[in-house]
Amino acid sequence: MLAQSDSAVVQSSAREKSQPDISIVIVSYNSANVIGACLASIHASRDALDVETIVVDNESSDGSAKLVGEQFPWAQLLVGHGNVGFARGNNLGFRHASGRYLFMLNPDTEVRPGALSALVAFANMHPKAGMIAPHVVNPDGTLQHSTFRFPDFRQAFYGFFEKMTPLDSPQNGRYLPEDYGRVRKVEHILGAAVFIRREVYEQTGGMDEEFGLFFEETDWCFRVRQLGWEVLYTPDATIMHVSAHTTSKNPERSSVLFARSRAYFYRKNYGWPGYLGLKVITIIGLAYWMLRTLFAWLRRGISNATFRRRLGSYWQILWT
Question: Which CATH superfamily hosts domain 4-246?
Answer without folding.
Answer: Spore Coat Polysaccharide Biosynthesis Protein SpsA; Chain A (3.90.550.10)
